[in-house]
Amino acid sequence: RHGAVKAEDTFKTSPFHLDLWFYFTLQNWVLDFGRPIAMIILPLEWFPLNKPSAGDYFHMAYNVITPFLLLKLIERSPKTLPRSMVYVSIITFVMGASIHLVGDSVNHRLIFSGYQHHLSVRENPIIRNLKPETLIDSFELLYYYDEYLGHSMWYIPFFLILFIYFTGCFTPVAEQSRMPVAALLLMGPSSLYYWYLVTEGQIFILYIFTFFAMMALVMHQKRKGLVLDSNGLFLFYSFIITLLLIAVWVGWLWNDKILRKKYPGVIYIPEPWAFYTLHMNNLHAAKE
């Protein structure tokens, strides 16, 4: 099924995968975006701080369901795709998401002890007074596994698999280059999730390079008389809307001095949860 690429693969077409895209979007929202919310909302007595939280179980389910859906998506590609690259990407994805599960679990549980995500590890009041000071290095290592190594091994293969699938979403039939109403309805939630993924995961460079690669491929295939099918259009337009949402997000928080301090440099894209602990959490405390 995933052998060498054949010339006739280019001329195969595929209907819009409403079931897969719907399940993919739903589980992304519930199991990824919803896991820290579930951890905060559900009573602490149900999930003691020394045990896995509800969000951790959400993360475990995500680590199983997402690679399964990605494999099913690859299987439905009208073009034969490189099997070895897909398998290595899925294995790396699962390993990276599992590393992130542990680091993210501890980091989010620290919120109940007063940890503030808009501050660096060493600037957090509950961390900087730890004795001996080598404990701070341990927390920085945990943060590295969570925010850097885990994210890299999770998101790089994730976007790579999406791009590999995207390479097979071309057709010579112009009539098939349109999206059904269901695709238009799913585009909003899908784009909003990708915005959260890019901003919270701090992976703008990875996202923008993937988007530029998509644009280059579209222009290259257009010279051959090929256009995107409904699945390719759905993915491509979702990435375009995501870029617009990121621009609005950055413009809104452009003059936030505290977030500017945490996210220095040319690329300034604050994390939503850093914004929450800085502004929304303080607002809730003031109301109480």
TrEMBL record:
It comes from Orthonyx spaldingii (Chowchilla). Keywords: Membrane, Transmembrane, Transmembrane helix. This is CLN6 protein. Signal peptide: none annotated. GO terms for cellular component: endoplasmic reticulum; membrane. The keyword Hydrolase does not apply. GO terms for biological process: lysosome organization. The gene is Cln6. PANTHER family: CEROID-LIPOFUSCINOSIS NEURONAL PROTEIN 6 (PTHR16244). The chain crosses the membrane at residues 20-42, 57-74, 86-103, 154-174, 203-220, 232-254.
